[in-house]
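Lab channel / #folding
Pinned by the channel admin:
"Please post every new chain as: sequence first, then the structure tokens as a reply. Keep commentary short and put observations after the output so the thread stays searchable."

First post following the new format, from NK:
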Amino acid sequence: MVTFVPLKGSARFPALRTGIVDLLSRNTTWTLVREGTLGVQFAGVLFYDGQAFMVPKQRGANAIAALGGATVCVEKGTSSEIHLADYFAARHLSVKPLVMDSASEAANAFFAGRCSAYTGDASALAAARLRAPGGAQAYTILPEQISKEPLGPVVRDDDAHWFERKVGILI
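Reply from TO:
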């Protein structure tokens, strides 16, 4: 039996470590820091994504550099939060992160006009854009990406059975 448990980004690793969930899947970036310090193992890369930015089309922004000084919605406890600060600092541009507890809260804040842009994995932005008030055509995902995110399933490092190869035939 499989039970799906929705978790905020900041709650996913504690939930895995304490056994509330056995597996994280879908949108967790594989980083050396996470694997080296959190007591977890990544089982492989399912796909690569990249951190992007979504803006209202009416803003007229066509590059990330145009977001200097802007308030940007971002989900708490994600690599996107770190990359946002690092990217703008490295370019000596100011940015005001509006850090929200979940991706849905960040998207809602963005669509409510509380920030000028919303940042996260491009695939997550594309999904959020589909439910945008006024329709997806009212928003643009900028073409630049500021990271390459290897996403894959994560398990506790003491749960090695996820890595065993078993071949079976179903009749």
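NK: Strands lie at 40-42, 47-49, 51-56, 71-75, 96-100, 117-121, 139-141, 149-151, 154-156.
TO: also worth noting, The longest strand covers residues 51-56.
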